[in-house]
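During the reporting period the student researcher (J.K.) took over the structure-prediction task from the postdoctoral fellow and processed the backlog of single-chain submissions. One of the processed entries is reproduced below for the supervisory committee.
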Amino acid sequence: PIYQTIEIKGVSGLMICHGSPLRNKQKMLPEDEETEKVMEACENRYILFGHTHKQGSIEYAGKVAWNPGSVGVPIQSGGKAQFMILHQKEDEWVPEFLSLDYVKESIMLEMIESGLEKMAPYWTLITRHLLHTGEISHEFVLKNACKLCETETGTGNWYDVPDKYWIKVITKYLPIREMDLGKSGAKVSELIDHRIMKVVFRD
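J.K. obtained the following structure tokens:
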């Protein structure tokens, strides 16, 4: 099912979904007309959703929707893992939003040692930057690379974007120098100071 409603005696029902109760990949966003339509149509007062990886709450039409954020790849989080705890207060749910710093070095090293950088070097760079900063998502880079490819070639299929378009977008939005990536791309490990496990930044 697209959504599931959790019923606990004495508390208003909690509707749980990934994107929205109507569409799995729909983004529920603050001050968004489509989101407001979804919330207005919902029978439940409380909605718990995800998909955007952005922690926060939306209130509309006497209803409230909560996004707990993401523990693994949170966006706009300042590089912190995010989650939420719901507390019961009489017949209501009260959210407690949490953002916690954590040691990222072991995760960064695992991405190199697992061979991920060889299979998806640019994806790995984006992930590393996102975990450190909480900014610039994979979706953002991919969409821009596809758009640039389509503008120059007439086609921009996400699964077949040439390296040069990934490089152009990455070096525009991430603090990576194009000279470090090279004409055909370089190993992510070559861009990393293994002592501090950080991405090489622009001068």
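The committee noted the following: The helical segments are 33-41, 105-113, 116-119, 121-133, 138-153, 163-173, 178-181.
J.K. will present the remaining backlog at the next meeting.
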